[in-house]
């Protein structure tokens, strides 16, 4: 149960929000996660001051009977995984899906479901019940990726060495296969972003969409209206559509945010790291283990590696190098944004009018770039939603021409070549080792 201090913090949160602070600002002041602020803000809206009190976490239903043999096998496996989690070279997954994967590998005659495993763990008092997820203030359109190589989320998580030096850990993950790639740098400038994107695409193939948050190194900065940043230009050059999450809304980048936790728990919390080379060595041992892990509930007992390389993807040409001057290539750039009370949407440092939208509505904006023109269209839903409505359309001024997409980066028609690439990646030594490269 929560403490008196927890309740005091919730009350302080309400005071801060009522004073005009945003959830992000309140989270910073209270040293709490934004998700915590959203949860208690929503609870207060629905239930008032009484809603800030802690609720009982006792299970609401009596579990069905499970055989004693299965129960012992589940608890024994959990105990084994907990012991392994203390070892510096183990990932540390101990939940229901990790237990299911271990029992499956052991060839258990009657395999209990993940829900049964979790029920046994709760009954034994070793698993905490999940709290309800907080609802965001604004509901944003999102792409519901259904196939591998469709959407990759990219983000940066900062860490600090003992001497105080910053290390910026770049991570990317396919949201369907959960196949990750990462690299670590002493800075997070545009040059580091471009270097990481090339490594990401070499290891994972070229996805249809790549999703960023709104940091300057991804977006191109906050000074110039209509700026097309270098990361966007590189993605367009290779036929990928960049997607920008809503500002201050990490929930939209949930897959890579969750991956950051696993990465940080293994790489940074179990050992003391002395320098960048040390970080890269430690990271290099994490990625291949994660790619082979069978702990994901959505992968039906398979590993990210098995899922990711089951289907082919477009690839960077051998010997690909970034041009000295990146052009603006034809393609599409997407933005998830809220509509302000004056029916304006802020995109690329400029406000655009959306008269047909409601205040605080989440919208999906797409910048269409062709050699003939550039057009910004704002929709009520993401591109994969049939019958979505266009709420506004504006010409988008550019100070330089848009070049046609190179033929080599268009969708691959030669499937045989694509399958050869897939097999090559499946059987070659794992490319987690580039995370250790300079």
Written overview of the protein:
- By secondary structure, the protein is an alpha/beta fold.
- Helix 2 crosses helix 3, helix 4 (68-85) packs across helix 5 and helix 5 crosses helix 6 (114-123).
- The protein has 13 helices and 13 strands.
- It has helices at 4-18, 23-30, 34-47, 68-85, 96-105, 114-123, 190-204, 216-219, 230-237, 254-267, 276-292, 304-308, 415-427; strands at residues 151-160, 166-174, 180-185, 209-212, 241-244, 328-329, 331-338, 344-347, 350-353, 362-369, 374-379, 390-395, 402-403.
Q: Any key phrases for this structure?
A:
17% strand, alpha/beta, disordered C terminus, Nucleotidyltransferase, domain 5, 3 domains, single chain, 13 strands
Oligomer: single chain
In what range is the share of β-strand residues? 15-25%
Q: Would you tell me the overall average pLDDT?
A: 86
> What coarse outline follows from CA principal-axis ratios?
globular
Outline of this structure?
The protein has helices at 4-18, 23-30, 34-47, 68-85, 96-105, 114-123, 190-204, 216-219, 230-237, 254-267, 276-292, 304-308, 415-427, and strands spanning 151-160, 166-174, 180-185, 209-212, 241-244, 328-329, 331-338, 344-347, 350-353, 362-369, 374-379, 390-395, 402-403.
């Amino acid at each position: 149960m929560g403490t008196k201090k927890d309740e005091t913090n919730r009350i302080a949160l309400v005071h801060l929000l009522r004073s005009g602070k945003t959830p992000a600002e309140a989270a910073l002041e209270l040293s709490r996660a934004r998700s915590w602020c959203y949860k208690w803000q929503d609870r207060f809206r629905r239930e008032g001051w009484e809603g800030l009190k802690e609720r009982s976490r006792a299970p609401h239903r009596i579990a069905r009977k499970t055989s004693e043999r299965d129960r012992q096998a589940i608890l024994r496996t959990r105990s084994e995984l907990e012991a392994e989690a203390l070892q510096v070279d183990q990932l540390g997954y101990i939940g229901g899906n990790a237990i299911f994967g271990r029992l499956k590998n052991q060839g258990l005659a009657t395999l209990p479901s993940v829900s049964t495993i979790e029920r046994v763990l709760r009954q034994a008092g070793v698993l905490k019940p999940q709290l309800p997820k907080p609802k965001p203030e604004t509901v944003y359109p999102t792409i519901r990726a259904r196939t591998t190589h469709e959407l990759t989320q990219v983000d940066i998580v900062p860490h600090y060495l003992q001497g105080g030096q910053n290390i910026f850990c770049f991570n990317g993950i396919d949201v369907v296969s959960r196949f990750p790639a990462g690299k670590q740098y002493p800075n997070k400038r545009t040059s580091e972003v471009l270097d990481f994107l090339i490594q990401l695409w070499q290891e994972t193939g070229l996805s249809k969409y790549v999703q960023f948050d709104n940091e300057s190194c991804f977006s191109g900065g906050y000074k110039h209206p209509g700026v097309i940043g270098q990361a966007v230009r590189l993605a367009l050059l290779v036929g990928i559509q960049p997607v920008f999450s809503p500002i201050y809304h990490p929930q939209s980048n949930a897959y890579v945010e969750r991956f950051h936790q696993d990465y940080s728990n293994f790489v940074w919390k179990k050992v003391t790291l002395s320098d960048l080379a040390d970080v890269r060595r430690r990271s290099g041992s994490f990625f291949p283990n994660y790619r082979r892990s069978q702990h994901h509930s959505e992968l039906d007992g398979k590993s990210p590696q098995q899922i990711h390389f089951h289907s082919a993807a477009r690839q960077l040409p051998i010997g690909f190098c970034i041009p000295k001057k990146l052009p603006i290539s034809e393609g599409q750039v997407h933005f998830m944004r809220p509509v302000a009370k004056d029916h304006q949407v802020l995109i690329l440092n400029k406000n655009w009018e959306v008269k047909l939208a409601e205040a605080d509505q989440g919208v999906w904006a797409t910048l269409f770039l062709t050699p003939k023109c550039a057009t910004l269209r704002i929709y009520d839903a993401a591109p994969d939603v049939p019958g979505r409505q266009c709420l506004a359309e504006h010409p988008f001024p550019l100070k330089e021409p848009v070049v046609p997409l190179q033929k080599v980066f268009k969708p691959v028609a030669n499937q045989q070549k694509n399958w050869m690439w897939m097999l090559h990646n499946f059987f070659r030594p794992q490319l987690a080792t580039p995370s250790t490269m300079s």
